Amino acid sequence: MSRVPEASVFLVVDEAKRKAREKGIPLLDLSIGSTDLLPPPEPLQALREALADPSTYGYCLKSCTLPFLEEASRWYEGRYGLRLDPRREALALIGSQEGLAHLLLALTEPHDLLLLPEVAYPSYFGAARVASLRTHLIPLREDGLADLSRVPESIWKEAKVLLLNYPNNPTGALADWGYFEEALALAERHGLWLVHDNPYVDQVYQGEAPSPLALPGGKERVVELFSLSKSYNLAGFRLGFALGNEEAIGRLERVKGVVDFNQYAGILRMGVAALKTPREVTRGFAQVYRERALGMAEALEGALSLLPPKATMYLWGRLPEGVDDLEFTLSLVERGVALAPGRGFGPGGKGWVRIALVRPLKELLEAARILKEALD
Fold first, then answer.
1. Is residue 163 part of a domain?
2. What's 180's domain CATH number?
3. CA–CA separation, 230 and 241 (whole Å)
4. Residue 137 CB: number of other CB atoms within 10 A?
5. Is residue 12 part of a domain?
6. I need a labelling partner for 149 at 20 to 30 A (CA). Which of 51, 257, 310, 337 fits?
7. Longest distance between any two alpha carbons in the chain, whole Å
8. 8-state DSSP, 146
9. In the chain, pLDDT over 70 holds for what percent of residues?
10. The predicted structure's pLDDT at residue 5
């Protein structure tokens, strides 16, 4: 089966950034998707009020999470028209990354087979290792989507979970409803779970991101993971939720029951307030990223071959032939710009870099200038 990337790639880049700062090199750090945008004021105010309420200071068991899960279910129904039971088809997470790791443990047995794209968020590979899973990596199409037609029938028959993530980190690729219909049909035909990690649901530049859970039959096979980190600029507070199949949610709850007591109640109250944020606010955040993406795409023309930006806070670019992505990334740090080397996102990422659009456009354009100079 396919090999997975080494997490040490990012440790090497982090060490290079540390040394650059020690030398006094001003660093434009575009290597991590940690936004410079501020959260809406309402969730922060809800957290302030919770901090003044001593009833929030104790352990937070399932009943404590219900107001948040009820709001998450309302949010989903308002967006996609599907009503969910917050007690049985929803679960609070300490971020979607935690949720995914525990979900794979809940849905599989050691040595089961996981299907995922050959370019993916690094945590997916780590979660597969923690669960002792084998992996089959799916090649990407030209549009950045996993090419499901290239998975052999024998692999489909053996697989237990198909893991997807659209809008995608690192590529920014965006799947349409038809793509998810195909994925769900394959999951139904072969009796596997479809897990969709959906933290970038609100970072679509035009229109709305599809949700496979909302498709006919979705509740029979799908679990979706959502996060407040990207939609509301609340990454450090570590809050998300899982929605979907009742059996899968129950399994996940049992695994989490031996690991944690949920998030702090005040952060859950903050989450309720965040989910009530008007859609035009999150659309405004998405438009900031769109302007940055289009500006950077124009500035980098002729230097990188970019996947056309449609969503997320990232640009995914192919380096010129023969340029090693890790070596280039390390050399660029010495010039004052940090990017993420593509190989850290899987074997399909070699020769690519990910640019996080987490600084104002003026600073991003300066980073583009430095990058182009480094390639000359």
1. yes
2. 3.40.640.10
3. 13
4. 22
5. yes
6. 310
7. 61
8. B
9. 98
10. 47
Are 174 and 46 in a shared domain?
Answer: yes
Among 218, 251, 277, the domain-final residue is 277
Specify the pTM.
0.96
Question: Which residue, of 277, 310, 330, is where some domain finishes?
Answer: 277
Sheet arrangement for strand 240-244? 90-93, 240-244, 222-227, 193-197, 159-164, 113-117, 134-138
User: What CATH number is given to the structural domain containing 364?
Assistant: 3.90.1150.10
Report if residue 2 sits inside a domain: no
| Structural domain harbouring 359 | 8-39+280-375
| Confidence at 8, pLDDT banded by 50, 70, 90 | confident
Q: List, for residues 300-359, the tens digit of each pLDDT value.
A: 999 999 999 899 999 999 999 999 999 999 999 999 999 999 999 999 999 999 999 999
Cα dist from 8 to 14, 130, 353, whole Å: 10, 16, 16
Tell me the chain's radius of gyration from C-alpha atoms.
20
